[in-house]
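RECORD TYPE: protein structure
NAME: DDE Tnp4 domain-containing protein
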Amino acid sequence: MDKKLLVIMCEEGDIDEEKLVILGRLTDQAKMRPGDFDLYKLSRQDCLEDFRFSSHQLEILKEALEFPDIMYTDAQNVIPGMEALCILLRRLAYPNRLCDLEKLFGRNRSIFTLTHRPLDYATQNICYTGHKKEHDLKYTGVMTLCGIMYLMCGPEPGSFHDAKLLYRSEILNMMKESRTWPPTPETGYYLYGDQAYKSTPQVVDPVRYNASPLETACNTAMKTLRISVEWGFGKIGNPFFFNKALEALKLGLQPLGMYFRVATLLTNYHTCLNGSQTSNSFAVEPPTLAEYLENYLEDHIDN
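PREDICTED:
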């Protein structure tokens, strides 16, 4: 039954508000065509390959993220919440042709597409990085020993220097205001960066000139430890390879910044449930998914 008709019937007193809600839900469920997708018919290996999580972990994710049982797309399609979560994960896991997604989920391609306006020349120019000879977006992140990408700031144009990204990210101001990171040698925490960054009360970088033998040894040791940041960014791109498939990414035609930030969050969820190379290397257990989500508002995966 059409929802507009139900509202009219409620206004005329033919049904009360409680029945309106019940009949509205039944109408949504009637519109929700089952399609060909059945998560529980897939093997564990298929789930891991297609969605990067097992079916049991997907259930945990759906509940933890409070996905509703019924979801609506911008095109007013009605689909189950679990299927919507799987579509998101499959979309980011690997570049997919729309026809492949249609076959997997049994849905019209209007569910899977979102198009943005092309960039103008000036915007394309500022995103061009001479180092890689391509249009690019950059991000600044803070990696923790437990494998969680605690901060992710961006995107910024590819032509920007890493030090400029750090300045624009407000990370330094956040550290100044934080009680956890007071800039004192005795009790404070510091960020360690490579030679692209300058030393500040919050950031330590390698000693560049006239380094003593001890400072040289420290540079070597910290360089080995700093690789964990590369592991962190690598994990975002490996399970959610869509963000690394340059042929599939269209700057100005797709919300690339949103894709990457969502992939970062999903990677953190994956680390909570499965651990990571970083957490194993430093022997630091990541938080549980519940602990991470409970403290999520204190984290910053934003621009």
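COMMENT: The first strand starts at residue 70 and ends at 72.
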